[in-house]
Write a structure and sequence with these properties.
This protein has 11 helices and no strands. It is mainly alpha-helical. Iron/sulfur cluster (SF4) binds next to α2, α6, α7, α10 and α11.
Amino acid sequence: IECADISLKDIDQVAKSSFPLCMRHLFEKLREDHHLKHGGRMQLGLFLKGVGLKLDDALAFWKAEFSRKVGAERFDKEYAYSIRHNYGKEGKRTDYTPYSCQKIISSTPGVGDHHGCPYRHFSEENLRAALNKMGVGNRAVEDVMDKVRSRHYQLACTLTFEAVHGASCDAGINHPNQYYIDSQKILES
Ligand code: SF4
């Protein structure tokens, strides 16, 4: 999935307007805690790569947060490698692709993890609060919760997309990077 590059100065704005809830949540937790566990770093890191964040910007982005928690030296020693690895610059030099909804939904986040799909993994209370924060109206929240109860998580995400953008998403959401691209298309038109 390709799209226009994203730059560091726009990233907070774009996270608010165009990231699906799974990525918004990771992004906010990273800004708040200056740390994410491995599953979260992979899920968000590969997504950001997919939205066009360049390797140098990715390193700067993660370092700015992690340095506040573990210090710059430890970041360089313990974390920078895996970011370069995700970009195919270390190890087997595989160019890793961002996770699909299916993969994220079937993940099993443990205590202290923030990855996964909020429609599947959040409590009802936390999900409602997150949807309110995204600006989803009461009526639409109930429609989303209906889909969640019948375990149609991607449809729940599609309804959220439609509520937030005031536009239909006929194809349905099946990949976080697709959510991003479709959102940008609407916002730019
Ligand atoms: Fe993310 Fe997909 Fe879940 Fe939406 S349905 S929150 S894009 S994993």
